Amino acid sequence: MTENLTIRPEPFESCDAQRALAQYVAELAERFPEGFDPGRGVPPAEDDFAPPKGVFLLVRFAGEVMGCGGLRTEPDGTGEIKRMWISPALRGKGAGRALLTSLEDHARRMGCTRVRLDTAAELGEAQAMYAKAGYVSIPAYNDNPYAAHWFEKTLR
How far apart are CA 41 and CA 49, in angstroms? Predict the structure, then answer.
């Protein structure tokens, strides 16, 4: 599978990035009992996912867009992972972990010493992946109305 998998930066405003984000939003709207509105809380600004402040990555399998994730950085050396999504067709095959690792690698290159993220109660598989990848539970660092769990990892 890995020979057909690519993870590369993509402009946040590109058609492929917006298509992946639309699939992310549609899935969360289905999975969350109250639906999902990406405008609630404090959504990331488009330039948060562009150098030098961050990066937006697309996952492609055999050329087809099947995942995405963004990293935005803070001046204190913290990176935040946002909008991470893998198509159900690729789940359980290592694509999510590969995307997470790639986001962490970008964070290191951008000078981050730690990364954090939040996730919803309904996303148990994501919580398990983060824990397995070395993320530890931390107190809430934002007021995301969909978040029930907050995680952080020190980058080495």
Answer: 18
